[in-house]
Amino acid sequence: MRYLLTVICFFGLVTASQGAWTDISEKDFLKTPWAERPRVEQSACIDCHASELIKADYQKIPGEWRQSWHYQNRVACQDCHGGDPKDAAKSMTPESGFIGVPKPKQVPEFCGKCHIGIKDNYLESGHGKALMTTGRGPNCVLCHGSHNIQKASIDIISPKLCGVCHKYDRAKDMKASLLLTEQKISDIGKSLETLKAGLISTQDEDKVLFQTQAEFRTLFHTVDVKLVQEKTGEFSKRLNAINDKVLKGFGELKFRQDFAVFIMLIFIGLGITIFLLGRKSK
Amino acid sequence: MIQRIRGWLEIRIGLDELIRSQLTEYRVPKNINLFYTLGIVAFVAFLVQSLTGVLLLFYYIPDDKDAFQSVQLIMNHVPYGWLFRLMHVVGSNLMVAVVFLHMISVFFLGSYKKPRELTWVVGALMLLTTMGFCLSGYLLPWSQLSFWATTVVTNIPTAFPFFGEVVCKILRGSEQVSGATLNRFFALHVALLPALLIALFALHVFLVRRIGISAPPFGREEDEDWKEFRHEDHPDGLPFYPHFVSKEAFMVVLYFIIMFAIIALAPALFLPPDTRIPADPFTTPEHIRPEWYFLAPYEMLKLIPNRFMGIAAQLILVTVFILWPFIDSSEKANILKKPRLLATFLVTLVIWIGLTIWGAY
After folding, report:
1. A102, A175, A205, B175: which could form a disulfide with A106 (CB 3.0–4.6 Å)?
2. How far apart are CA B89 and CA B48, in angstroms?
3. A133 and A237 assigned to the same domain
């Protein structure tokens, strides 16, 4: 016993002394992301925009961005504005590709770096043509905002937003055409989440739904009601095909649950039998 | 036919005498309780893991490019693959819970006291081996959670100077968690650890049968000092069969009821969303949190300001746990007559549960 305590004490002392020269702050290893592309929390852009030296309006930008869909998807300042976020001196030089506030005509290209399909459809639309010819048509940020960009939804089409430039009538027709399909996409999305929670794999359906949704929303940017109405049937067909698979998934989920309950009931019966036999044998 | 087989065996192995000496005339203490059955429940849990594990091996591909997809195949396309995988996943958690409960009850009942110190040490090593199973099995589905949890765990040895980096590299087989790590963990999970656990189990059963089943210490006089080896008999006890066997069978059935209740009502209880996303070395999940049985050590690591100290403290605690019968070497087995030990036991249990709950939120 004494020897054992000596060994433990010795080990404890060695531990303590070694610990002293091991990096004290290494505890962070539990929360440090190891990914090569972690979420940006610190950069030259954020540091500067957080300082008092800058205009009050510009100070709000990092806060707005942190509330955005872009932030949630790890899209950082330099992904849109260019520049070098690691070097304050070079962060805003033209050589580093920095664009601070793009001119209205530059906005489609600015956002279209990632949203390629949408950019193409937008440029073919009345909105896009008006912007490119007069420089005064509605651009991406007018509807979607700039820094606090939220996940796109059909609610963007509203009298408040559309009414800034024109009457709401045509936009209303467009929204009505989109509504059913959008609702269907949303319902299928929720069903897929339920299936996933029940451990039914929906990888293939997720991909098809994402693609369908992306194509459908791209199409909307043509702001061509007739075209949207024509194509709705095609999208409906694709969504129905996914829905059929979703229904099959729910059938499988129900079967799994029933089967597990069935086996559980067999064991409950077995347990009761053993309990009664045990009492009898006493 | 049965009589003929019985007769054949009787001539060769003395079946009747074996049944008499090991089952019907083998006596267990009168006041033996359900906690004494947890050992056999743990053994059945291991059998379930082995059986379902072998079935999963038919389709699982231990390769970083195919592992995740092969698990998806098992869950969605292999007939009843979902059932065997869920039995394996839920079973692993239940097995840890059963082994925990077994150790706690052995501690509370003072069954680690002389002459059963070795039985405790082997049991403690079996618990650690079970944890090793969980750890190595966690990586195999090659999901986001498995990948990042393994990254954290294999990073732990680097807290130690001189050999930490080497141990980390040996575990990973490369600088980062990769296909090489998966191969190593797979080998551990399906070859090395099962062999180790079976060997420890054989030794454990040998010790239990050789020394004899201990009686609950409550309401009886303390045993006389053990000066020489003897098998602990209970001549006034009840027969092992059917009395104790029916208790064991009941607890085994209860184990299966709990398992299938979880599979039916909460199949994703041990499979959070990050287990359904393939491993992506470039995207760290928001919250990396270990399984419930590692939450207390995990929380302790976060609380102790220095990583090395935190890990070393845990190693000391594990050493104390394994060698406990030699630390508490008094021969009194009744914990109720030892208020300081009882208080230590209860405080440790409460701290453990508290840290686990804290770690979960």
Report:
1. A102
2. 11
3. no
Residue B246, chain A, CB below 8 Å: the answer is yes
A119 and A60 inside one domain: no
Q: Give which of A74, A194, A264 to mutate to test B binding, by max B Cβ within 10 Å.
A: A264
Distance (Å, whole) CA B218 – CA A46? 67
Question: What pTM value is reported for the model?
Answer: 0.82
Q: Which residues have CB under 8 Å from A38's CB, separation 6+? A: B284
Same domain, A282 and A171: yes
Backbone angles phi, psi at B329, to 5 degrees: -95, 5
Pull the structure tokens for residue A94.
């033209």
Among B72, B256, B294, most A C-beta atoms within 10 A, so best to mutate, is: B256
Among the partner residues A8, A200, A271, nearest to B319 by beta-carbon distance = A8
* Domain assignment present for A2: no
Residue A10, in any domain of the structure = no
- Cα separations (Å) of A133 from A117, A170, B261, B271, B297? 21, 22, 66, 55, 65
Whether A186 is covered by a domain: the verdict is yes
Between these two residues, A210 and B160, which has the higher pLDDT value? A210
B83: which chain A residues are within 8 Å (Cβ-Cβ)? 256, 259-260
Statement: residue A40 has pLDDT above 70? no
For residue A205, being part of any structural domain is answered with yes
The region, left, alpha or beta by phi > 0 then psi within -120 to 50, assigned to residue A51 is beta
Domain hosting residue A240, numbered range: 167-282
**B45 with B255: CB under 8 angstroms?**
yes
Q: What is the DSSP string of A84-96?
A: -TT-TTTTT-GGG
pLDDT, tens digit, for every residue of B132-155? 999 999 999 999 999 999 998 898
Kind plus residue range of the DSSP H or E element containing A171? helix A169-197
Average pLDDT value for residue range B160-177? 90
